[in-house]
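Dear colleague,

As promised, here are the two records you asked about, laid out in our usual form so they can be pasted straight into your sheet.

NAME FIELD: protein one
SEQUENCE, THEN STRUCTURE:
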Amino acid sequence: MILLTFFLRFNEKYLDKKISFVLLSVILCIFFGLIVYISYKIFLEYLPPFIKAPMSSRVFNTHSLISWPIIFSISVIMLKELSIKTKIEFKKLFIIVYFALTLIIAIYNSKFLFNYIFAHYNKEVGIKSVLKNNPFKTRIMMFYHHTFYNKIDTKDFDLWSKIKNYDNKNYWIAVSPHHKDLTRLGHKPILINANSFDFAYLGNSYLIFIKDIIENVYNIPFNAPPEPPLKTYHGRIPNHLVKIEFENKNYKNWLDISNKYNVKYVLAPTSWNIDLPIEFSSTDGLTLYKIN
């Protein structure tokens, strides 16, 4: 909004009436949307359910979708002006600025990136510990699995048909992104969705339950999560951390979890090495483990 305001003020001679009107409309949309958004958040507890349920604050924040195209466009125009004034060819100036910004961002994030990659470095194991539990590797594998194996035409429905026939007396533990399939196709209750903890807002009574599971099942301190890498993971546990913890558990650990939370089955990628008896594996790259 500020960038657009300055742009309209100092570049009015380069804009026709139609473009000026569109940009002014965007500014007003952001301004009034911001007022409604802030008011909505401040008075949220006092609003009736029929106003809160549609989550109207998201509607008034949709202008953020066009923010980056606008910022990029204005930046290009300003670079064009700078190119004319400095008599530097626009393409050269654009490349110089682009690589300068890239270098600044890379230097700024280098410490975080280093800690992110070597967060699970083990001196005794050496570099192999990084290669085995590298978060990039886990993300690539999960992306590949989700992209090529999670499509409707390739989904292994036999897996979910088998799961559907199991009893519903026990909770199940699933690895993201299979929580939805386990409930939607397998009709099974999951202990917790580690990929999204926003359901905690449904009631304070959930918090103690969630805290207990995070600390006992995923071995992460609730009040002091490790950072990095959890600093940037808002309300979820990334799969590479889940993989490390699940592979580190022995059978007795799983048995304790089963007795405490009434969990009997664990659904995870076949490539993971989990110390549990295997019920069966699927062509979907998933394996069902049973805690006897």
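NAME FIELD: protein two
SEQUENCE, THEN STRUCTURE:
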Amino acid sequence: MNLYVLITLLVIAFPLALSFDRRVAFYTHWKAVFAAMAPVSAVYIIWDVLVTERGDWSFNPEYAGTARILGLPPGEWLFFITVPYACIFIYEVARAYFPRKYYRPNQQKTPFAVLVPAGAAALLALAGMIYFSGNDYSFLTLLFFLIWILITLVWNPWLFRDIHTLWFMLLSQAAFLLVNGILTGLPIVEYNPEAIWGVRIITIPLEDLFYNISFLGLIQNLYVRMKGYKAPPARKEGGR
């Protein structure tokens, strides 16, 4: 077992151990979790295989070992299982432990609370794709970020104003910064400077943030559809 495998297994250790917590009962969600993970992880693995072959990034054999499956080390394959599992666990913890806010009826009828910020983010992503078209990884992360925004707007627009999505993203990104900081700090993953725009959060390329948001956001879209989750109900007139 190399360090990369160990890190990816540690990512899932705590969520797996707490999957039988009575209030969250995450084990009852396993079918939907893995069904949502499978197609999204498959797309991102294909992306990973292709860009690794192209040279956008590489894996340090000192920490990732020398074994490769389609050019990817075992730790990288485990990443696409353990990370989404842990983060959907975070989403269910947020649903179980954080109160859900109601929306006023007039907020339910107007799309502007969702369309304006989501549309602005989509336009910025599109502008970034054009500007950074020469940086392969930058372009692809912004493309998938844009796809996530558009799919959510069409399929589950309520996710953009659901308090549980906010907690899901905030806590997932906090965990991401910790884990990815190790991966890029040692480094286990090394990036081709010509594939990225060079802005980093300490040692983490900024593109990784957009990558992680789109990856987890697309899985969440499938997951909530499979679970039948809906927008929070409107507050009744005169209600608290």
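A couple of things worth noting about protein two: The beta strands are 57-59, 189-191, 200-201, 204-205. The chain is about 65% helix and 5% strand.

Best,
R.
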